[in-house]
Each structure stands twice: as structure tokens, then as C-alpha cells.
Amino acid sequence: MIELNGVRKAFHHGMTNEFWALHGIDLRIEAKRVTALCGPSGSGKTTLLTIVGCIARPTQGRVRFKERDISGLPERFLTGIRRKSFGFVFQKFNLIRGMSALDNVMLPAYPTGEPRRTLHGRAERILEQLKLAHRRHAHVEWLSGGEQQRVAIGRALINDPEVVIADEPTANLDSALSLEFMGILESLVGEGRTVLLSSHDPLVVDSALVHRVVNMRDGRIL
Amino acid sequence: MNLWIEKQRYLIDFTLASLARRKWKNLGLLLVYALLVFVLASVTLFSHALRQEAARLLQDSPELILQRMVAGRHDLVPPGYMDRIGQIRGVQKKEGRLWGYYFDPVVKANYTFMVSPVAGLARGSIEIGSAMARVRGLAAGNVISFRSYTGDLFSFKVVGVLPRNSELVSADLVLLAEDDFRAFFSIPPGHYTDIALSVANPQEVRTVAAKLASALPDSRPILREEVLRTYAAILDWREGIVLALLFGAILAFGILAWEKASGLSAEERTEIGILKAIGWETGDVVGMKLWEGLLLSLTAFLLGFVAAYVHVFRFSASLFESVLKGWSVLYPRFELTPHIDGLQVATLFFFTVFPYAAAVLVPIWRAAITDPDAVMR
Amino acid sequence: MTRRYSDRALLLLLLLLVAFALTLADAARLRAVRAPALAESGALVRGLGLTDLCLYTEARYTRHPSQADLHSAFQDHPSALEHFPTGSIVSPPASLMHFLEAGREGNGRAPSSGKPEVSGKP
User: Can you give the residue ranges of every domain in chain B?
Assistant: First the structure.
């Protein structure tokens, strides 16, 4: 479903402090499966995730999504794909302060101009599924870590994406909440979504839910 | 179309939620902004309306007033002067005017004493302006005494008070009979303060004035068009006092706008990055920020303008009274007729709404077009 | 429905726009209402041959700015500070400024407004 060919990523490209985070990644990610990227910090997991999720572009190489080359697309189309097909859950959640959980979940759909009633309904259903309905109007800064993560997941799901990407989802959670997360993961797979995540938590990596583990080190796949 | 409208509503939702995070700061900004518009609009509305009123009222002034100068100072018109005007073509009517100033030490006010050309006032009676009546507590039937410049005391009976509606032109007038005037000010018969001339054809007035100037070299003709032009130029609020009033507000607003324009806070930058990462395009981000600028400035403009209108035309610009009144003891109580100059309002609108909207937009161009992966770092 | 920020904001904006429109309407109405009062003043101007509005009565040149003579308009010297607060609002009549300029340019030649030269004439 997602294919990466010779993908390389550099930061501050062409400048004196140039840093190559990825040194030629060839990877195929299967649809409707859970793929986990495993490796120590600095191995380029997050960078790879952002490239797959259309948040960043590769410096070199190609990314194909459903047989379509997306790495060279203009911003407008890339954003459209990002919005429709990918849902990203950040390690630091990156929720908007001062807005309620419900508003945060609806946020990615704002630019589509979808009628509020339907959008609202869908967001409510998602929050219910994530057992957050009772906190829908709470401002996100008042929520606990686990609740915030669930809001972040809900936000990633609002546009009904085919692919869900999660960066170190259990890094800030205790075991109980981590297990809860794995439960949510199971339901995502059950809905037929493709999941790509990065982790160095054995609870995740060694889980039966993960179909494939890709090991990385120093910007390369081992 | 509906999609677009709904999207704009979402953008407004977001931008207001964002502003609500610093609710009091932004409300303060709105208030300062509205206050600035209020002061500017009050000044504009007041001066424009007054100018219009002056133009309308004074269009019936005499076409030509002739003053006599002695050693560069205004002096009385001597007997026989009027005859020298004689046969200048175009002069329909000439009338010697008698008027002067009187300082009343009781209330420390200046009055304008005038002889009414329409006659009818008996000796010993006066008609007074309503502001003067108010200040001295007079009504028809009362008697009032003035000490002339020769030291003698003159008593007059008030037979009438001029209409209150005309205070703008008659507030300080004291109308008296010609004989009384001459006796009071010791002006011998045949002398006049100046001469009012009426010229039939308005095109002719300048030529008549030129002829008068050559026939009477010590005269100074004042044309009605000059009178009207004087009042058009009057209330040019470029001078210090009102600017001082505005300065505080302008400064405060300038600081706030500068802070906005000089760059985004880290929080705002992160927020934009997040929005882009979750699927907002550059255009959406810019649109959202534009709404922030527009909503604030439009609200401030409308609030300020409506408040200014009410202030000037319903409360007689009472906040500016101390500036407008100056040291006058007699200030006419008048209700200004509203004349709103569309051009001035539009100018005010453009100069208040657009700079702020631009100030909000400027710093986000850069942030809006960068790739959102910066948010990860 | 009214919990939504955009609804509240747009409602407020609409109210303000209505208020703005009302001021324009009110202005038109007041103009009509005050027309007779204006007419009364106009009659007085005509009857008495008045030339100035009675706004500031502190001095000759503030009470009758259109009649004030050259020297009193500038008080002590042309760039003297104003003695009265209103002097900062009321500028010297344009006609006087023109007169000064013309006097500087030519000598003895009266400017088109018909004013005689004051300075330098015996």
C-alpha cells in the first residue's frame, strides 16, 4: 500500500550543519496490517513516520501511496491526501490548548466545510468509542495523560483515514494505560485500518497484534 | 458556496477560541482600538458637521463688508465715507453697521453689542442672546446695567430673548437702538463700525471689491466667500491639543499592533505547525488569521463609530467640551445637525481596519508556508 | 447553537452593523427635525447681517475670525504661541495668509481678492 524507494532525508540540506536522518530507506508497508518501527532514539523512526504521513517530504527518493507517487505533489494535493487518508498521533499529542476535547477532535475536518451537525455527530461517536464522552467539553489541558492521548487518537480518526500513524504511543503511559492503548489498536485493526507505529516499548513490539517489526538504526533499516 | 460559508465559520470558531486563551488581553486590545476610533470619529464627525452648519448658516451673510483701516488697525468709518462709495456699479444697497464688544466684569464674559438694522427697538430696551440670558439669569422684563467705557452707568430693560434655536449665531448678542449704542460707546453720529454692502450679481463681487479698494485705499473689503472659506478651514484639527488627546491612545495601540506584527510567539508558531500537520492548508491558516484581524478591527471600528455618533450628536460632544469651549464663559448650547461625510468615514475605515488586518497577517506568511514537520522538533 | 463562537461573533457583528445603519438613518431624521431651527438661525443671520458663528468669545479674533484684522490674528508676532486654547483649533483665516503671501511677492499690487496693502503705504 505504501512504498518507499531510496528515501533519504536531510535537515539543513546544503548548509554547514547538514544532518542526514535517513540514509536510503526501501520499505513496503502492507495494507490492513500493523507495522512497528523499532529502534533506539535517533534512529530516524519519527522522521520516517512523518514522511510516510505526508507531513514532510523526502530529500531524495520516492514515496508511493496506493500506486501513486506522492513525494512530488504540490502542497495542496499533499495536504488533501494527508487529511483524507492519514491520521497522525504525535508523541507529544500536540493538542490545541484552550479548546475542548470535542473541538480538538473536529479540528482536522474544519477546512472541508462539512456541516457541523454531521461532523459533531461523528466526533461524539468517536469519543464514545474511546470512552471519553463524559469529558467532551473539558479543555484538553485539564485532561490526564491517558485522556489526552485518546483525544489525540480521536483527532486522528475524525476523517476516517485508511492509515493511522502513531509515534511512540506508549512512551508517556504506564502499563495499565499502555494495555488500554493496545485495546484501541485492536479495534482499529478490526475496522480495517492500516497502522504504522514506532516504539521501543516491548509491550508494543512483542505484542501479538503487531504483524511486522522493522528494526532501524542510524537512519537505516537493519 | 455553503461549504465555503461553513468553512469560514469553522475558521472563525478556531480563531476566537485561540483569542479566548488570552481573553482579557484581547478584550483590552479591542477596547483600546475602539477608543481610538471613537476619538478620531468624534473629532471628524464634529468638525465636519460644524463646518456644514457654518456654510449653511452664513450663506446669507452680507456679500461684502467694508472695514476701514488706520495705521494697520480697524477703525471707525467716518461720515462721508459711505458717499465716496457712491456710484460703484453693482452695489445694490449699502448700510452702515454698528457693533462692538463689551466686557462684563460681573461674569467675565464678552458680549457683542449690535444695532439691529431692522429697527423697532425703543430707546432703553435691549434684546439679548439666550446664552447671555442664561449666564446673567435674565428674562424679558428684567433690567440690567452696564458701565460704559466712559465710566457712566447705563440701564436697559430686556424686552426679549433671542430664540434658543439660534444660539449658534446669537449666543452673546445684545441688540439695542442706534441712539443707545452711540451714547453707550460714545460714537458720534455719522460714524459706523463698518459697512455692509449687497451686490446683486455674485460674479460681480470681486470686481466691486477691487473697485472699492482703489476708490478707498484705506478700506479692507471682506467677501462673503472669504467668510465661508474661513469657516471651512476652521476646526482643522491638526493642532496640538487634540493630538495630545489622541497621543495616548495612538501610542498604546501602536505598541499592541507592533507586538502583533513583529512576530509570532512560540506558542502561535507551534499552533500553526499543528494545524498544518493535521491537514490544514496554508490558505486555511492564512484565512483563519485574516478573520482574527478582520473581526477585531471591524468590531472596534463599528463600536467606536457608533459611540462617536451618539457622543457627538446626542450628547453634544461633551467629552471635548473643555477643549472646544476654551476660556469662553459664554458657550452656545446648540445641537449639531448630523452631516456624515462618507469620504471621511471611508478613510477612517480604511486607516483603522486594514493596517491592523495587515499587522496580523504579516508575521504568519512565513510560519504558514513552512513544512509542518518543524512541529516535531 | 449559540455556544458556537462564530455564531456569537457574527451575531455581534450583525448587531453592530445594524447600529451603524441606524446612525445613518438617525442622522437623516435629525436633519429633517432640526431644519426649522436652522431656518430660524438663518433668518437671524439675514436680518442682522451676521458674519460669524458665536463659538468662542474670548477675543476679537476668536469671536469674529472672519472679520479680525491682520495683526490681531497673529497676536504678537506670526509664530507666537496661542494665548487661548481655542487658538490651537482655530487657524488664521486663509484669506489673511493669502494676503501676506501676495504682500511678499509684489509691492503695491493688490491681490485678486481686492485687499489693499497695509504695510509700506504712506
Answer: 2-58+235-375, 64-233
Please report where in the chains the cell 471613537 appears, as a residue: B38
| Burial (0-12, 13-18, 19+ Cβ within 10 Å), B40 | buried
Q: What is the pLDDT of residues C51-83, one digit of tens each?
A: 888 888 777 777 887 787 654 444 444 445 555
The pLDDT mean for chain B works out to 84
Domain B64-233, what architecture? Beta Barrel (2.40)
Higher pLDDT among residues C68 and A32, named by residue: A32
Q: Examine the pLDDT at A109 and tell me if it is beyond 90.
A: yes
Q: According to the model, what pLDDT value does residue C74 have?
A: 45
* Domain residue spans of chain C: 1-50, 60-105
Indicate the pLDDT class of residue A138, thresholds 50, 70 and 90: very high
B70 has a chain C CB within 8 A of its CB: no
- Picking from B12, B65, B117, the nearest residue to C51 by CB comes out as B65
Could B284 and A113 be called an inter-chain contact, meaning their C-beta atoms sit closer than 8 Å? no
* B122 alpha carbon, distance to own chain's centre: 39
Query: How does B159-186 read in b/e, with b if 16+ C-beta sit within 10 Å?
Result: bebbebbbbbbbbbbbbbbbebbbbbbe
pTM: 0.80
Nearest to B281 among A111, A113, A116 (CB): A111
Can you tell me the distance from the alpha carbon of B202 to that of B190, in angstroms, rounded to the nearest whole number? 29
- With CA atoms as reference, the chain C residue closest to B324 would be C86
| Cα angle B261-B265-B270, degrees, rounded to a multiple of 5 | 125
| B339 at interface of C, judged by CB pairs closer than 8 A | yes
**Could you tell me which residue, C98 or B157, shows the higher pLDDT?**
B157
Interface membership of B183 toward C (CB under 8 Å): no
pLDDT at A104: 95
Residue B325 touches chain A, beta carbons under 8 Å: no
Gap from B377 CA to chain C (nearest CA, Å): 32
Instruction: Tell me the residue type at A96.
Output: I
Q: Give B192's DSSP letter.
A: B
DSSP reduced 3-state for B223: strand
Determine the residue of chain C that is closest to B244 in CA distance: C88
Chain-chain contact of A94 with B274 (C-beta, under 8 angstroms): yes
**Other C-beta atoms within 10 Å of B312: how many?**
25
CB atoms within 10 A of CB B55: 14
Mark yes or no for CB contact B299/C52 under 8 Å. Answer: no
Mean pLDDT by runs of 10 across the 377 residues of chain B is: 89 92 88 88 84 86 89 86 79 87 88 84 89 89 91 92 88 91 92 89 84 85 83 57 64 73 76 88 89 91 95 85 70 83 84 79 72 60
* pLDDT the model gives residue B164: 87
Give the CATH number for residue A107.
3.40.50.300
How many structural domains does chain A have?
A: 1
Closest-approach residue (CA) in chain B for C122: B71
Mean pLDDT of A66-92: 88
Chain C partners of B130 at a C-beta cutoff of 8 Å?
A: none
What residue numbers bound the domain in which A139 lies? 2-221
Q: Could you tell me whether strands B125-128 and B173-176 are parallel, antiparallel, or unpaired per DSSP bridges?
A: antiparallel
